[in-house]
Amino acid sequence: MNARSVADDAPLPVRAIGAARPSAWLRAGWRDFARSPLAGLVHGAFVAIGGWVVVLVSLRHGWVAPGAFSGFVILGPILVTGLYEISRLHARGQAAGLRDAVAAWRRGTAPLVWLGLLLAALGTLWVLVSALLFKLFAPAPLRGPLEFLRYALVEQGETLFALWAVLGGMGVAVVFAVTAVSPPLLLGRRVGFRQALLTSVRAVGENPGPMTLWALVILVATSASIATGMLGFLITVPVLGHASWHAYRDLVDAESAPLRNP
Amino acid sequence: MEGTVFGLTEQRIAELGLTWGVGGFILLMLVIIWNLARESKAGRFGTFILFFVLAFGILGFAMKSVLQWLMNL
């Protein structure tokens, strides 16, 4: 047993960054998108279509709506794996396109699949908790999405909203923390699943201010994309996806971990 | 009595769910957060959670207000 496998689970070293870094990530993300627009648009279209599927399911089963969106958003980091690969190739001075993104998907490293399953499980849990909260509070069963919306926005008191915000806020914060930099790390380096998640939490815990800002950028961009009837995802998914890769490069000192594809 | 389950009224079940169920869930989340902070050696992970929950609440409240305004138009 060598020294590396003893410390296998220990998080990788991370860097402290300045508060303005998220805007630099966005600019770099935009540049990557502009260099390989087709791949970016295809990824955005996948997410937009997924968004519509969530809406259609919610229309049939209204009470699923509050959590369904959040659950879908949680899968974001996995969906954009192909974009990380393109950013990685760009950074090495190589041209990259849709073919490289598809290749990254097909290579589909096992830990990334595990991360996807974990996120899907958390998304489902969140849907159930949201549904339970509304079932507990709603005076009568809510039928249909319009009745639900009216209740959630107009009739319910501030207590439910505050509870939902605290519970949901903590849940989303944890999910954001474990996924902020773990997918690109798992894609690029031979690291364990646990190690990648803990490295991500460490990077976030080392930079609470800038990372709260980054999380807010993602939340606002996602909400705005939904508000445009999912069309906004065509732009926000590629830009945020590429930007996440630059965030990973900024935050994690991955030199000590071996490359996955040297 | 109308609509009782195990001798509990619906209102009482909602109260129990609210206090014990939601309280327990918040406690579970706090344990998960504490454990993650300890294992990842992240010094200020708690600060991030605090920042994030506050920002999430404010953002949610703003969105709720905008949607309320839109629905009353």
Order of neighbouring strands in the sheet with most strands of chain B: 1-2
Instruction: Provide the β-strand percentage band of chain B.
Output: 5-15%
Tell me the number of structural domains of chain B: 2
Interface with most residues = A-B, 44 and 38 residues
Shape descriptor of chain B: flat
Q: Using DSSP, what is the number of strands of chain A?
A: 0
Query: Given the helix and strand composition of chain B, which structural class is it?
Result: mainly alpha
Note the main sheet of chain A. Answer: none
Mean pLDDT of chain A: 83
The level of helicity of chain B is over 70%
Looking at how many chains there are and whether they match, the oligomeric state comes to heterodimer
- Tell me the Rg of chain B in angstroms: 19 Å
Structure description:
The complex is a heterodimer of chains A (262) and B (73). Chain A is mostly helical. Chain A has one domain. Chain A is 76% helix and 0% strand. Chain A has helices at 3-6, 21-35, 37-60, 65-74, 76-79, 81-91, 98-107, 110-137, 144-155, 158-179, 182-188, 193-206, 208-227, 233-251. A two-stranded antiparallel ribbon of chain B has the order 1-2. The chains are: A mainly alpha (262), B mainly alpha (73). The A-B interface holds A 11, 129, 132-133, 136-137, 149-150, 153-154, 161-174, 176-178, 198-199, 201-206, 208-209, 211-212, 215-216, 219-220, 223 and B 14, 17-18, 21-22, 25-26, 29-30, 32-33, 36-37, 39-45, 47-49, 51-57, 59-61, 63-64, 67-68, 71.
Task: Summarize this structure as a short list of keywords or feature phrases.
heterodimer, A: 262 residues, mainly alpha, 76% helix, disordered N terminus, B: 73 residues, two-stranded antiparallel sheet, 2 strands, flat
